[in-house]
Structure formats: structure tokens, C-alpha cells
Amino acid sequence: LKEENATLRSKINKLQILSETQADKMRKLEKKLEENKIKEEKEAQDLEAMVQHVEQNLQLMTKRAVKAENSAAKLRQENALLQAELRNSKLENEALRAGQAGLAAAKQNAEVALQHLLQVTTSSRASIRQLLSGAESLQLVADLLKSIDRISEVSEDGQ
Asked: Are 71 and 137 in contact (CB under 8 A)?
């Protein structure tokens, strides 16, 4: 009985040591789990902040693109008006040449119309370049948002 008692005590001691070891491991794992939760929350907040920033940038770029499109449409209309004015000036110029009356005035009108047309053409080109730049920026933002979706999918798969 004493021998059996000693054996049981020995087993109890071993089990207590094993239990303490497992309790230590459990505490360490709980601490690590808590640290991981905190880290994950911070990463989620950072990601959310980044998404909000990207959304704000996207809204700004969209506004710019709309403004550039409106500007380009106005410039196209102005360009069309100036081209019509140029055609009229050319016709008037031809009529004046045929009549040999007021040649200098017709040349001046044509020159003014030509200068207006050149200004509008230059302005139109700049606006179109700006519109294309805005479209490229929007594409970049769209690609960035796609990559953010992939990051969040990878994070969810990792859990």
C-alpha cells in the first residue's frame, strides 16, 4: 500500500508539474493571442484609414475629371463657333477681294479669327491632356482599390 501510495504521489507530482507547464504555455499563448488581436485591430484601422484616404482622392480626381470634361466640352463649342466665324470671315474676305473693297479690314478680321482659333486650339489641347491625365489617375486609384481588396482577402484567408 505504501508503495502504491508512493507511486500515486509520484504520478500526482508529475501531473502537477505537467499541469503547471501547460498552464504556463496557456498563459503565454493567451498573451500572444491578445498581442495578435491588438496588432490585427491596428492593421484593420490603418487599412480603413488608407481606404478612406483613397476614396477621398478618388472623389477629388472624379471632380477634376468632370470639371475637365466640362471645360473640354465648352472649348469644343467655342472652337466650333470660332471655326464658323473663320469660315464666315473667309467668305467675307473672298467677297471683299472680288469687290476689291475693304481688303485690309477683311484681312484683319481673318487674322483676328485665326488668332482666336489658334488660342482655342491650344487651350483645347491642354484641357484634353488634363482630361487624359485625370483618367490615368482614376485608373491608378482603381488598381490600388483592387489591390486593397486582395490584401483583405489574403488577411481573411490567413485567419
From this structure: no
Cα-based angle 73, 75, 76 (whole degrees, multiple of 5): 65
Q: CB 82: neighbour CB atoms within 10 A? A: 20
Residue showing cell 503565454: 28
For residue 155, give every residue at least 6 positions away whose Cβ sits within 8 Å of its Cβ, in sequence order, or none. 43
Distance CA 136, CA 18 (A): 63
If the chain, 159 residues long, is cut into consecutive pieces of 10 residues, what is the mean pLDDT of each piece? 92 95 96 97 95 92 90 90 89 73 70 85 83 82 80 63
In the block, cell 490600388 appears at 144
